[in-house]
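can u do me a favor
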């Protein structure tokens, strides 16, 4: 073929291919979901591009996906008449992994099957999953609207390199032919394919068709040779899932749809599907994933919802509709409030976007509140995304109280590193006369738990929150109170236990302070400028001394963060 070249895969792709083939064997049917998902995306993209330019359809505006197989040859073909790819796009999309952080992510993989399968799942395997079942893959594609001579053929055995060549191609869109491995021939089977299509693509709006061969029969019921007629039969439900009424969508369908939208292959923890009419019209389907994507903390990690305007796909990862601290939420937003030719730039200026963002934020927080009723599921959520949610009070002042109610902490009540106690739990256990919520921030759980500052609290049976995440001091600097109870750092300022301490105790403390005045003076002289002040304290019961920060001083954790940032 003309202009043929063989290129090497990017190192990351090679690594991914190797690991995927070895660790996803027991999940190998997912290749079909990935290919259908890509084909559906390609149809969505063409429909969007054609809004401005009808000619892109090239006279064929009935978007569809076709799946064929050849049992004898051992092949499965997935074809779409979507947007297609140019030669450059083929090389880019099917030769590299563009997401940032990929290299670091792949380093964590160890070759340990189960662990790697979990990790790769969180990465999203995509097109390359073809090589779990195929020992050779051929892609033929042409970008919609381009000249027939601008088709491309891509071929690879998944072993480090691929070949691209020019191709004369009548139809636009993409066709992917998998040459199945010997041990994966079972997929070249009509029944198997149909059931997989139903399982994975009922929720996709584009029809997925498979050929049905019918043979005419003579009067005696015998098949007439040579009379085979092939008709295309739509196998999936082919309605966008979020458009359907809630009551008609099963949990399995919601889960399958999640996997398409989120490029994840484990189940979501929960979801919330809402159709809103009236002043602000939109349909949203939001999901809480069961695990974190590898780029959760990457600055440019993918986040946001899939945006549709009146059922027409507009863009992936529309990040303007949810705050940063809810970046783990995945899903779909479909609205009539925006125009079909809205762009990322226009989204930033549209006041409607702010309104929808406010509404979706409430939906997401409500969904978490509901999830919290299921302790086990919520703990999974918290362990996975808790430290992201902790960014909330700083970012979203208006929803501070709601977010606070969703937070979970370690406390002296359980003395466990597991963050599983809510502020409401804490408040319900407050001592009579206790007006404040006490907490301590330290570098790790053990440091928090064994801090001498806790001695008096333990003695009196007053609960203290044990904060030990990197972000905790930042969090506490944005939370002033919960249900009217002020937060107090036990390591800062004067210790005032308020009503919990009787008058007599207070008197005794004052007397001790007087009696020890000369000792205090000597210690102060010895320490000199290293300290601001030396005081007698009743914080301690066993330890002889501790360091205390002035009330409004930046804490140790924050100081270290600021220092690290060069401030
Ligand atoms: P993802 O779908 O998460 O982007 P994939 O590995 O599944 O990752 O696909 C990589 C890219 O290849 C897609 O983003 C898309 O640009 C391109 N691609 C894959 N399949 C098709 C297709 N059928 N039609 C057009 N482009 C495709
Ligand atoms: Mg994909």
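np, heres the sequence
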């Amino acid at each position: 073929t003309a202009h043929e070249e063989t290129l090497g895969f990017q190192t990351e792709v090679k690594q991914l291919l190797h690991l995927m083939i070895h660790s996803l064997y027991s999940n190998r049917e997912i290749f079909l979901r990935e290919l259908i998902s890509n084909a559906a995306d390609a149809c969505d993209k063409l429909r969007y591009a054609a809004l401005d330019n009808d000619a892109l359809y090239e006279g064929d505006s009935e978007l569809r996906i076709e799946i064929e197989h050849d049992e004898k040859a051992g092949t499965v073909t997935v074809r779409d008449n979507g947007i297609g790819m140019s030669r450059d796009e083929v090389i880019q999309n099917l030769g590299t992994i563009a997401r940032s952080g990929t290299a670091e992510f792949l380093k964590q993989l160890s070759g340990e099957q189960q662990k790697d399968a979990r990790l790769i799942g969180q990465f999203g395997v995509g097109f390359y999953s073809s090589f779990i079942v195929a020992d050779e893959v051929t892609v033929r594609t042409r970008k919609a609207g381009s000249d027939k001579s601008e088709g491309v053929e891509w071929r690879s055995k998944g072993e480090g390199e691929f070949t691209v060549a020019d191709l004369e191609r009548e139809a636009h869109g993409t066709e992917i032919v998998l040459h199945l491995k010997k041990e994966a021939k079972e997929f070249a089977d009509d029944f198997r394919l149909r059931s997989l299509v139903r399982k994975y693509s009922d929720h996709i709006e584009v029809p997925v068709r498979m050929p049905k061969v019918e043979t005419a029969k003579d009067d005696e019921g015998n098949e007439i040779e040579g009379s085979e007629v092939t008709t295309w039969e739509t196998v999936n439900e082919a309605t966008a899932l979020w458009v359907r009424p809630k009551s008609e969508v099963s949990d399995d369908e919601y889960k399958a749809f999640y996997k398409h939208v989120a490029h994840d292959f484990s189940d979501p923890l929960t979801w919330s599907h809402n159709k809103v009419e009236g002043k602000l019209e939109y349909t949203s389907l939001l999901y809480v994933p069961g695990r974190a994507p590898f780029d959760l903390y990457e600055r440019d990690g993918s986040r946001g919802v899939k945006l549709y305007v009146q059922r027409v796909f507009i863009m992936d990862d529309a990040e303007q509709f949810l705050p940063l601290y809810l970046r783990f939420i995945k899903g779909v937003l479909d609205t009539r409030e925006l125009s079909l030719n809205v762009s990322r730039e226009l989204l930033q200026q549209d006041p409607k976007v702010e309104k929808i963002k406010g509404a979706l934020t409430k939906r997401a927080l409500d969904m978490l509140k509901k999830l919290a009723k299921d302790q086990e599921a919520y703990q999974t959520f918290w362990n996975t995304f808790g430290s992201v949610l902790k960014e909330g009070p700083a970012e979203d002042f208006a929803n501070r109280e709601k977010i606070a109610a969703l937070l979970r902490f370690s406390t002296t009540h359980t003395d466990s590193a597991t963050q599983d106690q809510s502020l409401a739990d804490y408040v319900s256990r407050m001592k009579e006369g206790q007006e404040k919520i006490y907490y301590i921030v330290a570098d790790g759980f053990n440091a928090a738990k064994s801090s001498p500052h806790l001695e008096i609290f333990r003695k009196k049976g007053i609960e203290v929150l044990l904060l030990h995440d990197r972000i905790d001091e930042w969090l506490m600097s944005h939370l002033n109170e919960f249900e009217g109870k002020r937060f107090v750092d036990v390591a800062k300022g004067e210790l005032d236990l308020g009503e919990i301490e009787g008058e007599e105790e207070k008197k005794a403390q004052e007397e001790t302070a007087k009696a020890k005045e000369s000792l205090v003076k000597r210690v102060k002289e010895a320490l000199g400028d290293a300290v601001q002040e030396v005081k007698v304290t009743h914080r301690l019961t066993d330890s002889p001394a501790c360091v205390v920060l002035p009330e409004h001083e930046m804490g140790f954790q924050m100081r270290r963060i600021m220092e690290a940032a060069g401030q």
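DSSP finds 20 helices and 19 strands in the chain. hope that helps!!
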